[in-house]
Design goal:
globular, mainly alpha, about 70 residues, 3 helices
Length: about 70
């Protein structure tokens, strides 16, 4: 549920979502992600990022709720 909430806030699960204030792109809004990155790869990279930085989607969402980004 936390992952669903987090990525809904970030991109509404739109694999073409672009952040006009940064280089973030895709479903997980990863910085400098190439715009031709397939949706499945975006999800894989996003899950790996969350695991390495926060451990769990719940912790990533808690950080996002405090800071407005993750």
């Amino acid at each position: 549920k936390a992952l669903l909430t987090l990525w809904t806030k970030e991109s509404r699960w739109d694999y073409t979502a672009r952040n006009p204030k940064s280089t973030a792109f895709g479903i997980p809004q990863i910085l400098r992600m190439p715009h031709n990155t397939p949706m499945v790869r975006q999800i894989d990279l996003g899950l790996k990022y969350i695991q390495s930085r926060y451990g769990t989607p719940s912790r990533a969402l808690a950080f996002h709720n405090r800071n407005g980004w993750y």
